[in-house]
Amino acid sequence: MKKDGQLWGGRFTEKPDATFAEFNDSFRFDKRLFFADVRGCIAHANGLRRAAVISEAEGSSIVEGLTRLRDTAVSNSAYFDNSGSEDVHSFIEGKLIDLIGDTGRKLHTGRSRNDQVATAFRLWLRDEIDGISDRLLEAQKSLIVLAERHRDGVLPGYTHLQRAQPVMFAHWCLAYFEMLRRDRERLADVRKRVNVMPLGSAALAGTSYPIDREAVAAELGFESVSANSLDAVSDRDFAVEFAAACSLIMAHLSRLAEDLIIYCSTEFGFVTLSDTVSSGSSLMPQKKNPDALELLRGKSGRVFGHTIGLLTMIKGLPLAYNKDMQEDKEAVFDCVDTVDISLRAAAIVLDNTRLNEDRTLNAATKGYLNATELADYLVKKGVPFRTGHETVGKAVLYAIAQGKELHELSVEELKEFSLEIGDDVSDALSLKATLGAKSAIGGTSPDRVAEALEQAKKYLNG
Ligand code: ARG
Question: Of the listed 265, 274, 279, 281, which one is catalytic?
């Protein structure tokens, strides 16, 4: 006995149990693939027509019918409500048959939902990857705008969250720019493997009809067709890869968020977020909290979870298709939604972030951030670095006892630590010299950073 619009049921004598149907059905979430699946259906119908499996007239009727379904879905926001369909594929086929009659019953010739769903999912994901790639670019742009707003800003750089060496603020912005650049490259790479067409693999063994798969692929903009039908219907490694690429995006956003959360604390006071991207407390009237940043950090976990969830889902599956694979969709959908809103949120927070330049400058010149400079000064005078390191360590210890910075000690006091120290030492210890010395490729010298900013802007302009 068949449920209305069901794609199977000839060999069944009973209707599905309601709880089983609720458990089994995927329409409530896979309706999201509607437009992609309609595209796949149209290309398949054209493939059948070209192979003369269906007549020209039947082909036209099916394609026109599918086009009308698509147009109706665009104009009618309640189109998907109360359908009771098992999945998006049965929904489309049922609607088509309702619309054009028995000819619609020919659409599924030579294909299975197994190759159909893999095709629709890949088509859908390909577009979403392009969307996320654009979002990444927007976030990168916000980083560069922020860097330029504080072109001369200087920040203490940290290791172990202890003050280490001063860096240009733009250098910090560009560090995240680079992470997001790699994220875009990764997505572009994943896209290559997403952009392979499974259609024509049918249930598992390949279609029995003389369909020109390459022509169908060309119509759908796929780069190539899958080489093995068993693999094509049962592989979801593209979904795992995509989730992994999303995980790295979230990891990067989470680190960015963590930096800014620390920097906007009263203790640091390096940055101020505008009210438009901050929240208050229901109890403490004075509070202004960086909730957006905390959510960027917090939301990373669910995306990481989807990666491991997908891996776990596929690891024990015997070839070929298994229903376990229906679980791929909600995971990937949530990766897309989470990464999309996170990137938009990151961009808007960056647009509303101000560097408190006086405070960061002050912090960058306190805490012996130029100690390495003094060691390098000694190296220039012929002292082996290891010896210089030890000498400067002693000088730092002395300075701490005096409650002074290295550059606040007199040349005479410094000379006590090494005979190589001369009157030129003060210049060597200045912030300008400290930053300027980092002039190798990738370093934080103002010239290098200006160069990197120019390159970044070129990248942004395509
Ligand atoms: N809804 C299924 C999925 O997402 C597609 C249908 C394939 N089902 C089947 N029984 N062969 O994977």
Answer: 281
Q: Is 184 exposed, middle or buried (0-12, 13-18, 19+ CB in 10 A)?
A: buried
Distance 308 CA to ligand 1 centre (A): 21
Q: What's the CA-to-centroid distance between 379 and ligand 1, angstroms?
A: 68
Q: Which atom of ligand 1 is nearest to the CA of 117?
A: 5
CA proximity to 360, closest of 283, 285, 264, 424: 264
3-state secondary structure at position 155: strand
Superfamily of domain 364-460: Fumarase/aspartase (C-terminal domain) (1.10.40.30)
The CATH number given to 18-109 is 1.10.275.10
Pocket of ligand 1 (CB under 6 A): 26, 30, 87, 113-114, 117, 321, 323, 325-326
Å from CA of 173 to ligand 1 middle: 45
Residue 186 Cα distances to 58, 144, 179, 247, 346, angstroms: 43, 21, 11, 11, 19
Q: What pTM, to 2 d.p., does this model score?
A: 0.96
Is the separation of the CB atoms in 435 and 441 below 8 Å? no
CB 196 within 8 A of CB 23: no
Given the residues 160, 208, 430, 439, select the one marked as catalytic.
160
**pLDDT block averages, 10 residues each, the chain of length 462:** 71 92 96 98 98 98 98 96 94 98 98 98 98 98 98 98 98 98 98 98 98 98 98 98 98 98 98 93 92 98 98 97 98 98 98 98 97 96 96 97 96 96 95 97 98 98 92
CATH number for the 120-205+224-362 domain, one of 1.20.200.10, 3.40.630.30, 3.30.420.40, 3.40.50.300?
Answer: 1.20.200.10
407 is catalytic: no
The predicted pLDDT at position 7 comes to: 78
Q: Which atom of ligand 1 is nearest to the CA of 328?
A: 4
Is 160 part of the annotated catalytic residue set?
A: yes
Contacts of 222 (CB under 8 A, 6+ apart): 122, 195, 196, 197
